[in-house]
Amino acid sequence: MDRNAVVLPGGMTSTNRKVDRPLVFTAARGADVVDADGRTYVDYNCAFGATLLGHCQPAIAKAVFDTMNGGIDLIGLSATSLEGELAARIVASVPSAEQAMFVNSGSEATFHALRLARAVTGRQQIVKFQGSYHGWHDYVAMNVATPRDAIGSKHLLSAGVLPAASNATTVARFNDVEALDQLLRRSGHDIAAIIIEPIQHNIGSVVATATFLQALRQKTREHGVVLIFDEVVTGFRHGLGGYQEICGITPDLTTLGKAMANGMPIAALVGKRELMERCAPPPTGDVMIAGTYNGAPACVAAALKTMDLLDAAAYDHLYRLGETMRSGLQDIFDRLSVPAQAAGFGSVWLPYFFSGDFLRYEDLLANDDSMDRAFRAGMIDRGFLTTPTPLKRYNFSVAHNAEHVARTLEAAEDVVRALRGAPSREIVT
Ligand SMILES: Cc1ncc(COP(=O)(O)O)c(C=O)c1O
Predict the structure, then answer these.
(1) What does the radius of gyration of the chain's CA atoms come to, in whole angstroms?
(2) Which of 123, 179, 250, 302 is the most buried (most CB within 10 A)?
């Protein structure tokens, strides 16, 4: 780690990868990752959910290798047949997808979705919700797990953000139909797009209610606002059709990424043909989506193979793992009388250290962050890896199994027993 810290700022290449102690990883396979000291961890970060099939999945590795080896690599003019094949598969699976464009990261996808929305509406303002993360760019890098005293104001995630860009974004209250209605009545004519994580997995798992999603769909239509579902986490992880297929609400545009190619860098902007066609090269279209690496064949091949492998049995397995973990964890909290709850959806799970309902990030301010941190640290000590940050989700992959769940629950009980009764401030690690 020391050597890394000399040449990489803070010893890493992404702000969001910070861990509590110096860890350098040297290998990853299936559900496990190995650090430089040879210690093996069960991985519940799974590259923030990207490696849905497990690390170094052999069929994905083969697809990448075969593409490069005697197949095709980056050509960078026009398109490959692979891109057309992947777009067709996504169009067949995702309800809102009539056309698709491929980029390299979720942030690029949300950036382009918002630019496209501005182009088609001729409006400038966009709306995101408190608690959602949509990437690192200036339009959206704000108000995720915001400190209590900054709620209600603009809380930027970075220095150097262009005020003109961040000022064009309004942060709205999640799951609040009344507030949405007021906002659209007041400013609907200025709003180009509303972007939403239909399940806010960047603060654990806060699900948009059916009522809220229905209102959002209806009111954005009424006001001519583009509705964007950011399914960078929920897409592929919860189903090939994304969460939109599960909730039955079809947005105008959708962003996909993360689990799309099991960790290979590819993401997508998909949506209605009449909007997406604006992204065609001139003279037909006028919205620029460019990138040297867009649609790189090895990544596209990995995405196609990922879609092959995400069959009904894979989802059955993932959902079962999630349910078993959540009910086992809740049982531990109940038996030990700990005011905590097991939350999550499908293959996503996490403990919230408070009792009571939650509809939005503001409700999660009740979370005992010290307890949360201590739980995570205790789990990492016992060989179960995740980000140390409170409210962050744990992700299953297809490579996890019932034995991992049993071992994790055993460790979780051990950790909770150790923490129970201790004043929070004494257990901060
Ligand atoms: C919902 C959501 N949208 C967008 C992004 C940005 O994706 P990327 O990190 O690939 O740029 C993330 C990343 O965590 C995300 O969770």
Answers:
(1) 21
(2) 302
